[in-house]
Structure formats: C-alpha cells, structure tokens
Design brief:
about 425 residues; Rossmann fold; six-stranded mixed beta sheet; four-stranded parallel beta sheet; binds pyridoxal-5'-phosphate
Length: about 425
C-alpha cells in the first residue's frame, strides 16, 4: 500500500474516478455496473479527476508502491484500501538483442505478459481490476464471456477472492485453456458456438441473473486494467514513451487502453509528451479491424473467425472503431498474418529470445516482422512489442512443427550415434530416427 492511498482513505479525499461517461456525446452516468449509453448507444468509460491524481502521485510514490498493477491505483477505478492483489503486473520489459538483430531493428523491447501472474496472460490485469470493483459494487457471483485466457483469469482470481464464479467459453478451445480454468473449480459453460455467440448469450444471462460479467456490465472498469500495460512500459523505459508499439487486437480494448495510459501519464506530468505510433496485429482468419484499416473504412464489418489464434478471435470487435481511429491518427498500421506465419512467429520468438508465447503472441511477432519488412517500422524507432499470453496454453498450435526428442539407450555409444544422425538431419525428421 502506498503512502498516497493511505492518505486518501484516512483523510477521506474524493476518489480519483468520478463518473462514467459515454464515448460519444459525453453523457454522464453514476459509477455502477453499466456499460452502454442509453441515449447514444456508445460504450461507457470511466472518467477521472486528473488534478486529484496529479496531487496524489509522483514518479517517486509510484516507484515506492507495490510491485504490481496497484502501484498505479490512483489511475484505476477502485476505492478499496486492499484491492485484490495476486501479484498481477510489473512483468519484464526485455531489451531484445537477437530478435532485434534478426529483424534489423536497433531498439526493440518485448513486454512479456506471457509470465503475468497468476494465469500467464495479460487478462490477469483486467480481471484484478474488474473483480476488485465487482466486490465494491456488491456482486457475489462473477462471470465472463471468454476466448480462453479470460476464463483462466476470472476463475483463478475469483477463487483467490472467494467469489462464486461461472464462466462461458466456446466449446472448441485449446485443452490447456479448459484445464487451466477447471482447476479453480468454477462452473464452466462450454457453448457450442463461436465467441460472438458466447458473448450474445452472456448479455442475456447478465440481464436476467444480476451477475458481474467482467467484460460486459463491468467492462468500463475491466478495460481500465489494460492501461497498466502502457504505464509499466513508460516507467520501465525510464519514464519515457516509446516511438512505436505493436499490440494484438481482439475486441480492440487492450490497444486503445495502452493509448489512454500513455495519454494519462502525459496529462499528469509523469512523462513528456511524444508522438507514439500504434500498430495492431490480427490473424488473417479473424481480421475485421485489419480489413477495415486496409480498405480505408472507419466501420468494422463483422466476420466469422477461423484461425488458430483463438484468444484473439473476435469477429465483432466492440472497440474496433476506436482502434482504427488510433492507428490512423498516430500514423500506425493494422496488419494481419496467416496461421502459418503465426506458428513461425511463435518459433521465432522462442528461438531468438527464449520466450514461449501462445498464438496471440505469434500473431504480434509475425506482424512486427511484416511491418519491418514493408518499411513501416523504422530501424531506429524505440519499438515495444506486446506479448500477451503463454505458449504452454496453446500447445496444439505448434505440436506438429517442433520435432521430437531423440530416444536413446542409456549408453554413450547410443548417444554418439544419435548425435551423429542429428547433425545430418533437420530436427523435424528426428522422429524417424531409431537408434
Ligand atoms: C484477450 C486477449 C488479447 C486482446 O484483447 P482485447 O479484446 O483486444 O482487449 C490479446 N492477447 C491475448 C493473449 C488475449 O487473451
């Protein structure tokens, strides 16, 4: 707990977040479990008193804060003195050498949320915020419509907080995502349909059951958690903004909130203003935002997803319009890559940096490579690529492309024969080696 938050609670200073506001038209709403404006039908967003934040925080108070997303509590929509802190956030920002060299970049950084806590994806950030707020609003059952990682995070963090939990997933998810949810013993509904159908069902359930759906009725609070991916990068770069970021797009929320995070750090005087270019990554089998970008449209046409990158397979992205706007006004790009390129992206990151990411990260690395090759990222730009999930959860995606171990007898000559053979073979042929 930081000094600033203690002061805030003991002196009863007004919280830093003040109301909800519609993204179009600025209609104000109270700080309840609401997510759509009844007048404009646009999404609701949390509004803050930036003077109050500026008075509470400095680089020093943040640095003295917890080693988690809660060091930025003044920028997050929670009142609790003890937010749910399972060590989420403050993941490594790795200065790349070998991937950078391979791509011909001079200043490449990898924000590694493949090792985020507790469930190894960036979703732990948004869920830590959403469930803290859910508890404040009096919800006892929490839920979500998930492409996989969100189910893992919601189930784990709900277990930690002692909240009842029921999650909804598409029935064709990777085994690791399903097991990684069931282990926390929530109720899991595997819906025979794609994510967009799961989401529609959840909207109906939410209206009827009064549960706290982290990414539906709690979405304004939930999505704020993604700002911490902007805050951390700025702090880890020595209180500076990068020149260019490359991030994956599912609903587009994460991407837009990194942008909001940077803006808020500028607004409160924590970093100097700078033009940051925002580039986004989608899988070709689900690329409604990339298509709109390339065709110069500012509306997103929904698609039916068909890609191995299931965690970012949202055919009807809620924040697509806002993501397009950011890409265009920051002189960025939104690009898509094939499933084969995604697998190559996963392998490239693993072989050059020792980071095993899931399909979403493979998508982002492959798009980074594509943008560099097309001259759309300058070699000198300080570029941050966001790796948002862990490869152990999507093993199916790479299983066929990594070869096999060499099985040998526990004898030196068996080892030596195998070593000899391995030098003459591509590793993919190893499975054919019988020693
Ligand atoms: C959910 C998810 C994203 C992107 O989410 P948005 O809906 O765009 O905020 C990116 N990567 C992974 C691994 C995810 O699970």
């Amino acid at each position: 707990m930081t000094q600033a938050t203690q002061t805030q609670t003991t002196t009863g200073l007004a919280p830093t977040f003040t109301h909800l506001v519609s993204k179009e038209g600025g209609v104000k709403y109270p700080l309840k479990a609401l997510h759509v404006c009844e007048e404009t039908f646009s999404p609701l967003e949390v509004a803050y008193d930036y003077d109050a934040i500026r008075a509470q925080v400095s680089r020093e108070t943040i640095e003295a804060g917890p080693n988690s997303i809660w060091r930025y509590k003044a920028f997050l929509p929670v009142n609790s003195e003890n937010p749910i802190d399972v060590g989420t956030g403050m993941t490594p920002l790795v200065k790349s050498t070998r991937l950078a060299r391979r791509l011909g970049l001079k200043n490449l950084y990898i924000k590694n949320d493949a090792v985020n806590m507790p469930t190894l994806s960036f979703k732990d950030r948004v869920v830590s915020v959403a469930l803290t707020r859910a508890r404040e609003l009096g919800f006892t059952t929490v839920s979500c419509a998930s492409t996989g990682n969100l189910a893992n995070s919601t189930a784990a963090i709900a277990a930690h907080a002692g909240l009842d939990c029921c999650v909804f997933i598409p029935s064709d998810l990777e085994a690791g995502k399903v097991l990684g949810t069931l282990i926390y013993n929530p109720t899991v509904m595997a819906v025979k349909g794609n994510y967009d159908q799961v989401n529609r069902l959840c909207c109906e359930v939410g209206n009827t059951y009064g549960w706290g759906f982290v990414n539906i009725n709690l979405r304004p609070y939930y999505s704020e958690g993604s700002k911490t991916l902007g805050f951390e990068v700025a702090e880890q770069l020595g209180w500076k903004l990068p020149d260019h970021v490359v991030a994956p797009l599912a609903s587009g929320s994460l991407y837009t909130k990194i942008y909001k995070g940077f803006q808020e750090f500028v607004k409160t005087g924590l970093v100097e203003d700078k033009a940051v270019r925002f580039s986004g990554a989608q899988a070709e089998g689900c690329s409604p935002i990339a298509s709109a970008f390339k065709e110069g449209r500012d509306f997103v046409t929904p698609v039916k997803p068909n890609t191995i990158a299931k965690s970012i397979a949202i055919g009807n992205p809620a924040d697509g319009y806002y993501a397009l706007d950011i890409a265009r006004k920051t002189n960025g790009n939104i690009e898509s890559v094939t499933d084969a390129e995604i697998v190559e992206g996963i392998k490239l990151l693993a072989e050059t940096e020792g980071i095993f990411t899931e399909t979403a990260g493979g998508t982002t690395v492959a798009v980074l490579k594509k943008l560099v090759e097309a001259g759309k990222i300058d070699t000198d730009e300080t570029t941050v690529v966001y790796i948002t999930g862990n490869g152990l959860k999507t093993q199916e995606a790479v299983q066929e492309y990594i070869g096999q171990p060499l099985t040998i007898e526990p004898k030196l000559d068996s080892f030596e024969r195998a070593l000899e053979r391995s030098r003459t073979l591509d590793r993919l042929d190893w499975q054919q080696v019988l020693v």
